[in-house]
Amino acid sequence: MIINESDIILVSDNEKRESQKHESLRLSFSEESVSFKSYNAESEHFHISSQISCGSRKIGEEKERNKSRKVPSLPSVLNEFFGVYCLLSRSPKKYFKNRCYIGYTVDPNRRIRQHNAGKEFGGARKTDHRGPWDMVCIIHGFPNNVSALRFEWAWQNPKKSRRLRILNLKKRANETAFAFRLRIACHMLNSDPWRRLSLTFRWLLPDLEIPFPTDALPPPHISVERGSIIKTSTLIPQLQEEYDTIGICLLCLKSINSISELFRCFASKVCKSRFHMRCLSKHALNVNDDYKTLLFPIQGHCPKCGMSYLWGELVRDQRILLAVSEFNSSGTSSNMIPHQLIKF
C-alpha cells in the first residue's frame, strides 16, 4: 500500500485537531470545577451570613421584648436642691495641696466628679489640674438659687461683702486654709440675711470634720448633719381621688385661692391644717412682737396641733406642691393638692 505525503499531512492535522479538542475540554472541565467550588464557597458564606443575620435579628427582637416587659416609670418631680460647698485639694504638688475652693451646685455627687475629671468635663478652671479634690462640707436648704449664689459669692469674697467686711476676718497664725473658710461660713450663718434661713450644715466626709469655732457656733435652728447627699424625687399621684381642694385658712377662715398662698401644717397626716402664708407668718411673729420689723419667722408652732416647724421647711413643702401642680396644669387636678407626698 502506497501512502502519499498528502495523506500523512492530513493525518497529522487531524491528530492535532483532536489534541486541541481534548485540551479545550480539559480546560473547560477545570474552569467548571473552579466555578463550582467558588459557587459552593459563596453558598456556604451566604448560609453563614444568613445565620448571623437571623441571629442578630433574634437578639434585636429579644431586646425589644425585654424593653416592652419593663414596668413604665411613674411620673415624678425632682425635689429642689441648692447647696454651697467647700473643696479641699489633695494634690501631691506642694503649691496646690490643702487649697480650698468654694462653689455652688444643685447636684454635689455629679459636681465633685466634674471637678476631678477636669475643665473639659465641666469642672471649674480654678480646680483644673490642681486635684484630686475632696468635697468636705456643704451648706444647703436655701429657698432658691439666687439665695445660694449670693451666699457662695460672699463666702468666696469676705473682704468685699458688705455683710462680712465689717468683721475684718483674717487668717490666723497656724490656721489652715480650710479652718479659715469654716470660720467665715460660721460667721455668715450668724449674720443677716442667712441667720434667719432654715439651712443645713453637712459634713460630707466626717473623717475630715473639725470643731466649729467657739466664737461663731452655728445658730440652734441650723441642722448639723453627716453623710453624703441623696437626691430625692416626689411621685405625682395619678388618681383624682388622691387630690383635694386647697380649702380655707384656719386663722382668717377665708378661702385660699392658690397654692402660692398656701402653707400646710408639717404634721399634715394628723393635723391637715392649712393657712395663708401671710396669716401664719403674722401669727408666729406676734408671739415675740416681731411682726412690725420682720417679714417671716425662723420657726413657730401650729395654731391647731401645737407642733413646731421651721419656716424653711414649710417653704420647701410649698415649692413641691407648686411643682406637682405645674405638672398637672393641663389636667383636672390643676390647683389641687395631693393628700400625701411620697418621696423616693
TrEMBL record:
Which is one GO molecular function term here?
5'-flap endonuclease activity
Residue spans crossing the bilayer: none
GO annotation (BP), single: double-strand break repair via homologous recombination
Keywords of the record, alphabetical order, are: DNA damage, DNA recombination, DNA repair, Endonuclease, Hydrolase, Metal-binding, Nuclease, Nucleus, Zinc, Zinc-finger
User: Which Pfam families does its entry note?
Assistant: GIY-YIG, SLX1_C
Tell me where in this chain the GIY-YIG domain is found: 80-165
Gene Ontology CC entries for this record = Slx1-Slx4 complex
Q: Please give the cofactor(s) recorded in the UniProt entry for this protein.
A: a divalent metal cation
Main localization of the protein described in the UniProt heading? nucleus
Q: Where in the cell is it found?
A: Nucleus
The text of the family note is: Belongs to the SLX1 family.
UniProt subunit comment = Forms a heterodimer with a member of the SLX4 family.
Function, as annotated, reads: Catalytic subunit of a heterodimeric structure-specific endonuclease that resolves DNA secondary structures generated during DNA repair and recombination. Has endonuclease activity towards branched DNA substrates, introducing single-strand cuts in duplex DNA close to junctions with ss-DNA.
Q: What is this protein called?
A: Structure-specific endonuclease subunit SLX1 homolog
